[in-house]
């Protein structure tokens, strides 16, 4: 079984913000397959489905970003999912809007959602898909910037990045992650 986790903050107030791009990818994946995230257990909304013979759980933690590990760890424990079978999707300030990067493992890079997951799992050995949200052009504090909606200039790139990220997730259900990185990191 594989687990695809999209990071974000719960509630309508945050739904279209830069920090919620992980949720947006999960929504894209669910919409493509007509899957419904309905379970509100493990402090998250989720669904367990089968795609091309591979069981997959989609998860949107409802703990707020900085506590994401409180949702991810119980899901992994309950379904007995190894860290190497987890892919976490999240926003990245250091990539241009809509650009994606996949990695096998790594540190938190200052991202509090990833820090929480590392702390709760006790390992950095899970896969990551980072989606660029760009850096603020003006002197806007980062905390304010990530909680704003995308600018109209960023919208096309962001929509493209969400679709490409969903494509990468679907490809991972069929191919080894190294091949997915080769295909989507170019």
Automatic annotation (TrEMBL):
Main localization category: cytoplasm
Residues of the site described as Discriminates between blocked and unblocked aminoacyl-tRNA: 9
Single GO MF descriptor: tRNA binding
Catalytic activity as recorded in UniProt: an N-acyl-L-alpha-aminoacyl-tRNA + H2O = an N-acyl-L-amino acid + a tRNA + H(+)
Keyword presence, Ion transport: no
GO BP annotations listed: protein quality control for misfolded or incompletely synthesized proteins; rescue of stalled ribosome
Protein location: Cytoplasm
InterPro entries in the record: Pept_tRNA_hydro, Pept_tRNA_hydro_CS, Pept_tRNA_hydro_sf
Domain of life, per lineage: Bacteria
Binding site for tRNA: 14, 64, 66, 112
Site entry: Stabilizes the basic form of H active site to accept a proton: 91
Keyword Cytoplasm (UniProt): yes
EC number, UniProt record: 3.1.1.29
Keywords: Cytoplasm, Hydrolase, RNA-binding, tRNA-binding
HAMAP family: Pept_tRNA_hydro_bact
NCBIfam families reported in the protein's UniProt record: pth
Family note: Belongs to the PTH family.
UniProt subunit comment: Monomer.
PANTHER family (alphabetical): PEPTIDYL-TRNA HYDROLASE
Protein name listed in UniProt: Peptidyl-tRNA hydrolase
């Amino acid at each position: 079984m594989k687990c695809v986790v999209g990071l974000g903050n719960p509630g309508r107030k945050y739904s279209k913000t830069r920090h919620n791009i992980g949720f947006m990818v999960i929504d894209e994946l669910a919409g493509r397959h007509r899957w419904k995230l309905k379970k509100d257990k493990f402090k998250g909304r989720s669904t367990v489905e089968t795609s091309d013979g591979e069981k997959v759980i989609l998860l949107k933690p409802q703990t707020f970003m900085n506590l994401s590990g409180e949702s991810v760890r119980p899901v992994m424990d309950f379904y007995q999912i190894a860290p190497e079978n987890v892919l976490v999707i999240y926003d990245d300030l250091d990539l241009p809007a809509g650009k994606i990067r996949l990695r096998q493992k790594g540190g938190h890079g200052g991202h509090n959602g990833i820090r929480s997951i590392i702390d709760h799992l006790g390992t950095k050995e899970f896969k990551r898909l980072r989606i660029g949200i760009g850096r603020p052009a003006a002197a806007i504090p980062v905390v304010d910037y990530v909680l704003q909606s995308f600018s109209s200039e960023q919208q096309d790139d962001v929509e493209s990045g969400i679709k490409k990220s969903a494509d990468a997730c679907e490809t991972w259900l069929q191919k080894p992650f190294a091949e997915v990185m080769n295909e989507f990191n170019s």
